[in-house]
Amino acid sequence: MAGFIRLHALLVDDDTLAQVCRDLPESACREQPRNYGVHVVSLGLTKIGEGLADPKLVLAWLLDAIGTPTWALGLLVPVRESLAMLPQLAISARIRQLAIRKTVYVFGCVVQGAAITGFGLMGWFAQMFSGAVAGIVAVALIAVFALGRSLCSISFKDVLGKTVDKGRRGSVSGTAGTIAAVVTLLLALSYSTGWIPLTVPVVAGMVVLGGACWLLAAFIFGSIWEEPGATEGGIDGLAAVIAQLGLLRSDARLRRLIVTRALLLSTALAPPFYIALSGDSTASGLGTLGPFMVASAAASLASSYVWGRLADRSSRRVLMVAATLAALANAVAAFVALAMPNLLETALLLPALLFVLMVAHQGVRLGRSVHVVDMADRDNRATYTALSNSVVGLILLAGGVFGFIAQWLGIGAVLAIFTLMAALAIRAAAGLDEVQAA
């Protein structure tokens, strides 16, 4: 436990033990140094797991390598993202009934770890399945993983708000993201150079290792000290959904944040189209995707901690800057695709644009997470998180239409739409409150 306190002293540049907390009761403030370290280590492990088992790259490659149908690859990301968000309206009502909510996060980590471990084991024993059966199993495992992610998403923000003071929450995610980015970058470089061979058993083993990271994160997070929270006023089932949806009419701040998040979905939806623009159509081509993996990991490494610290000062401005970067990257990519397609053969152009886009994506993730936590109070934080994630999850399901637009009008047209979305997000983010100043 002393190690967690030393980690807090290393990462936070003030005399925390002597400073009065702005948003925590005295008992929680005393435990903050140790809790801060637990958060960083546990969250870092889950982010390392995400790097080792990235659905957009690693899991998709693994499915392709073992011969699963194309429909299975196409369902990985939509199922993962939508099922991680949509159940949260109902889940938040039940979480509110629990005075201690860290157990929800621990259980969610265990579910995610078990699902990803199962995915890796399926890769090891792929010869026992037909391609179609492997595809069904893979999508089912990703669905289970997404449900565990849903539990973690809503409970983490609630526990973070109860255990780490306003002004330090962004650095938790930023530090954890930086640690994980180093590990992911080393893996990407190893794949790109051939130091780690790109074989099914090796990649499947890395996926199993990613699952183990989630299990270890659950164990560590269980040691956090959490003060009991309010349990009264919670409702369940359809009544909870109706009551919480009413916030969309009555709470202008939440409504604007959801609009901003919806417009910034372009940062999450655009990367596959960058990869498609590269002309990489070789089977099991993770080796050729190495530069994109490096760009993604390097973007996280270069920006996560910085975004986190900036978000502690102004999450509103973080979202504005991230939207600007996304608009610039998508605009250049769209222009090249539509007007100068010969430039797509330039080896480093698309990875460089992806780097800028992923820097923006890291800013979006950290900025909106810190904003919703600091905007809410102890009693409605879980509700705000669940409602915003559920609405954005519904919108994300509709994101599949961009694949049809790309087929009809070309990838350049899709990237032009993403540019417009990001540009509109700048204006939407500018209208958010400066919640860190409250």
Can you describe this structure?
The chain has one domain (27-224, 233-437): Growth Hormone, Chain: A (Up-down Bundle). Helix content is 76%, strand content 0%. It is built from 20 helices and no strands. Helix 13 runs parallel beside helix 18. Mean pLDDT is 81; it is low at 280-286.
Task: Reconstruct the topology from this structure.
Blueprint: H1 2-11, H2 26-30, H3 32-52, H4 55-65, H5 70-85, H6 88-96, H7 102-124, H8 131-163, H9 169-193, H10 200-221, H11 237-245, H12 247-250, H13 252-263, H14 266-269, H15 271-277, H16 290-339, H17 349-375, H18 381-397, H19 401-409, H20 411-430
Helix pairs in contact: 1-3, 3-9, 3-10, 4-5, 4-10, 5-8, 5-18, 6-8, 6-18, 7-8, 7-10, 8-18, 9-16, 9-17, 13-17, 13-18, 13-20, 15-17, 16-17, 16-20, 19-20
Concise overview:
With 438 residues, this protein is an all-alpha fold. It has 20 helices and no strands. The chain has helices spanning 2-11, 26-30, 32-52, 55-65, 70-85, 88-96, 102-124, 131-163, 169-193, 200-221, 237-245, 247-250, 252-263, 266-269, 271-277, 290-339, 349-375, 381-397, 401-409, 411-430.
Features:
single chain, 438 residues, mainly alpha, Growth Hormone, Chain: A, 76% helix, 0% strand, globular
**Within the CATH hierarchy, at the fold level, what is the topology?**
Growth Hormone, Chain: A
CATH C-level = Mainly Alpha
| Shape verdict | globular
What structural category do the secondary elements indicate? mainly alpha
Described by strand count, sense and barrel closure, the largest sheet is: none
- The total tally of domains equals 1
The counted number of beta strands is: 0
Rg for CA atoms: 21 Å
Mean pLDDT: 81
